[in-house]
Fold these 3 entries.
Entry 1:
Amino acid sequence: MYRVFIVEDDRTIAESLKKHLQTWGYEVSCVVDFKNVIDEFKTAAPQIVLLDIGLPFFNGFHWCQSIREISDVPIVFISSASDNMNIVMAMNMGGDDFIEKPFDMHVLTAKVQAILRRTYSLKSQLNIIEHQGVILNLSDATVTYEGQKIELSRNEYKIFQMLLERAGKIVPRDDIIEALWESESFIDDNTLTVNMTRLRKKLEEAGLIEFIQTKKGLGYVIP
């Protein structure tokens, strides 16, 4: 399920967008505090952003630039300020598309679908797993978050890959141990605990606090 983040101060428009996109199966959140858009963006960890230009405190160009400093998530501007200057500014600030208000909900949905398909099918072709800003590249066995590389051992990487591939689902400890034994890593229950502790510490040092959660008696999950 793709996550959509809406930055729109007209509550009627925001709620209409949210309701419509939810009927298409998207997980949608709307900004509440327009002074802290980036904090809410990080919490939402969306795959696409719908962004108005005219906003309280700071305009959409400001927030687009701020998002671009920490993420390459697709950004679609939605605004009635659709003169050429604003469209060019939106693209120069890092926007991926511009939809003029008033818009047809079905046209907007089609554009969102096209951008998501184009963006994330390409990542799949490149053997990349992306979740909440974390990018795991299967081609070169690297993990990056907000531009910083996270150095993992072989076992840590394999554990992290397994959890990311099943994000949102609990992965039993026995499944992880079995998978690593099959790859000749020879890991037992105690070794798994040690590797998980080290993995969590490295993620926390990169700013990923409680990224991996323990489900007592069941296993681990990346929500």
Entry 2:
Amino acid sequence: MTDNVGTDPQYDGFADEFLDHARDGFYNAYVDRPACLDLLGDVDGRTVLDAACGPGLYAEELVARGARLLGLDQSPRMIELCHRRVPSGDFRVHELAEPLHWLPDASVDLILFALAMEYVDDRPAMLREFRRVLRPGGALVLSRLHPTGDWLRHGGSYFDVRVVEEVWSQGWRVRYWLAPLERTCDELADAGFLIERLREPRPRPDAAAVDPRRYERLSREPTGFLAIRAVPRPGD
């Protein structure tokens, strides 16, 4: 296994399948999206950057709630799907570790970064750019795979920061970083953020009728996601 994930748009080859899966999928629709949207709070009239916007499922909901939506993803096909789903959004293909050269300092109110941090090799550079473009009083909401769940699946040392390759149940092969929670916290701090809230989301109550087995397991085991709301550190 290499020591990086690389810039290949891994989801490009199964972007349409991912849209079908994530639209109503248990993990996305009943765990991650509700948690992230709740942490974002009121978005009406605010400029939101949806970083790693995928096929536009978050973007669609944010626009419906009154946000002015900017979006980026490294997958050209994902961006095509976003344009179709949210015609009013401003979307572009962009590699996350590269500078956000089209965004001025302090130009967005909120940043959503859902389930994509583990695919970025230079996370410190990316987080510094997020800090740069956030306005005073803004916030970054990010989610990631729960590091305990990663460790339970892959074994080894929980504290090792490493790249793994995994084949998901849909047959999709993905590479991503494993990292302990302290590494995520340190990277946020080094980029000038303070963690305001940290959640370990459990499924919404109505998910019990959708998949009772997953609902029960994710209600008691840390094998799903983490969600964090971080704010710019004053004076940085």
Entry 3:
Amino acid sequence: MRGLFVRKLVGGLVVGGVLAGLLTAGTSADAAPADVQAVPFEISGELPIYPKALWKNGSSGANVRKVEARLVQLKLLEKRYLDDDFGTMTRSAVKKFQKSKDIPQLGYVDQNTLDQLAKVTHEPTQTELYPPAPVVDGKKLDARCATGVALCIDKSTRKLRYVVDGVVKMQLDVRFGAVKTATREGSFTVGWKSRNHVSKLYDSKMPYAMFFSGGQAVHYSSDFAARGYNGASHGCVNVRDLGKIKVLFDEVHVGDKVIVYRS
């Protein structure tokens, strides 16, 4: 009651101040325009106080990975997003979990959310946190291919492997750029796709192109199909199996990982 009284008192002072200003300016209350009325003024509601965020959008590190691993256990987050980075997908998974527990959908992890998450999941194992790299023909692929969706491209074996959550779904023969136009190595993502692409620089067809590093892309090469490893690309990853790359092109999405390495 005391708080309500104070709010009404403040409102009254505000209105009173307005009328006083009119009188000081030489205008009486009676002479005020008809549409000026002394309406009771009241502040309603309180400013919300949000709990402290332990990890939120933009956070990174081992603790974020542990939270992600717990969300994976609950099937609220796909394994591909187990990456130490609190991004859009992790935020969405956190909100889904909060909704399921009928707690505020903050989209970040506060202490209460962490406590609730710990109650319904187990401490992530080392294997859950860092899934082992898949093994093909007795040889491990690059560890970065172990989680999520990846075009795992090995320059040493001249193979492209389409890997989903550590399982090799498809394997294709590939060739790379010449010495002066070498295919870049490293970790990339598919930036954009072009089904019937034609290179403006070299005036050559690049069907089913999946670009990952500037002008470098994975694409079908009729020259590779005809000449094999006798030729080379201008930096792209050439595929010679048209049937397989047609299927691969539809499976791969913008944002999927591209790992180019030497085993």
